[in-house]
Design brief:
Helix content: 55-70%
Shape: globular
Strand content: 5-15%
Largest sheet: 2 strands, antiparallel
Radius of gyration: 16 Å
Strand order of the largest sheet: 1-2
Structural class: mainly alpha
Number of strands: 4
Number of helices: 7
Order of helices and strands: HHEEHEEHHHH
Number of domains: 1
Amino acid sequence: MASMSQKILARALVKLNEMEWPLSKIVIQKVLYFIKTQGLPVDWRFEPFTYGPFSFSLSSELTSMTYAERLEIEGNIYSINDIAGLELDQKTSDAVDRAIDGFARIVDGDHSFKTMELFGTVLYCKRALESSLGEVRSEDVIADFREWKEDRYTDQEIQGALERLQKSDSL
């Protein structure tokens, strides 16, 4: 029997596919991280990694789905093959869709690698700092981001991503 996390992943893949977003590894990782931050019941643990928050267990789940021929992968892009039996109840499915639509609005439909890395990392830094310090300032998030990513992004890019996340009430 499929777990709730597997069903949420399947719904997210279908929704992203309907939106004509590429089912790339970075898009999947960052969108599913965002879904987790919105309180949906997924089991994956995300941690800081090269291009932002990353879940090894989510990566493993995608590999398992590929071996089971539910997904195919070519290069870095997945395609849906057969996800029958992984349907969600309507309430949870709608919650997944709302979370993904919210994320798409926050990034203004930009699913580029750079945008996924930037927004995923800003969100991770903000949430990690809040969990350890409580209230944090923008400067704290920028400093934490810089420790992780160094000079890959400007302060203005980091601040802009943080402001868009805050305006969306997703933090």
